[in-house]
Amino acid sequence: MDVLTAIRTRRSHKLFTGQPVDRALLQELLELATWAPNHHYSEPWRFSVVGSAQLAAMADAVDQQLGPQPAGRSQAAKIRAILAGAAAAIAVRQVLNPADAVREREDYAACCCAMQNIQLGAWAHGLGSYWTTSPAMIGEKLHAFWQVQPGEQLVGAIILGEPAIQMPAIRHKPLSELATWL
Ligand SMILES: Cc1cc2nc3c(=O)[nH]c(=O)nc-3n(C[C@H](O)[C@H](O)[C@H](O)COP(=O)(O)O)c2cc1C
């Protein structure tokens, strides 16, 4: 798949078939992530990779994060069902630079570019994925699970797997509303 097609046809997927994914493919997605633009070659990204064998442990960590209240139980059950079908999850951690606010902002942006590379690379291999910043998936109580190190923050996680259904493209705003030609 060429890059233009990958950009235009990638959609967020949350329903997966349960088909596993080779470690080599996950390795390639990480490598693609590291080609993302990053100012001063700061390479601020770190990756926590969860293969299929660890997805149940991730669901347990989500359980802990969401707590015993009914709303939490219901969200945890939904996430457990998603993870049961998924093949892997990758969290992107940013190395922080508190002394330099500009650099920290740039590094966050670079980590987001790395996440997009992972999603596009996955899609080019026929894998669906979605990006999550939900506290349910990356909240404080999951930091130990993701092995967040001191001086890092979790930027987000990508859940991926073979898509069980095709997702429709939804875009609302016409380009004429979005672009100002100077
Ligand atoms: C920074 C960021 C955070 C997101 N967080 C979530 C999330 O927590 N849960 C979720 O279901 N989707 C999340 N998404 C995915 C968006 O909801 C999704 O990209 C959007 O609906 C557009 O759909 P598409 O990806 O199919 O084009 C996030 C996307 C971004 C860029």
Descriptive account of the structure:
By secondary structure, the chain is an alpha+beta fold. The protein has a single domain, classed as NADH Oxidase (3-Layer(aba) Sandwich), CATH 3.40.109. The radius of gyration is 17 Å and the shape is globular. Bound molecules: flavin mononucleotide (FMN). The site of flavin mononucleotide has 9 residues, from strand 3. Flavin mononucleotide (FMN) binds next to strand 3.
Summarize this structure briefly.
The protein has 182 residues and is of the alpha+beta class.
- CATH homologous superfamily name? NADH Oxidase
- Ligands bound, unique: flavin mononucleotide
Number of helices: 8
How much is the radius of gyration in Å? 17 Å
CATH domain class name: Alpha Beta
Morphology: globular
- Mean pLDDT, nearest integer? 96
Report the structural category: alpha+beta
Q: Give the termini distance in whole angstroms.
A: 34 Å
CATH topology: NADH Oxidase
How many domain regions? 1
Following the backbone from N to C, one meets helices and strands in this order, namely: HHEHHEHEHHEH
Strand order of the largest sheet: 1-2-4-3
Helix content: 40-55%
What is the percentage of strand-forming residues? Answer: 15-25%
Major sheet description:
4 strands, antiparallel
CATH hierarchy: architecture: 3-Layer(aba) Sandwich
**Count of β-strands:** 4
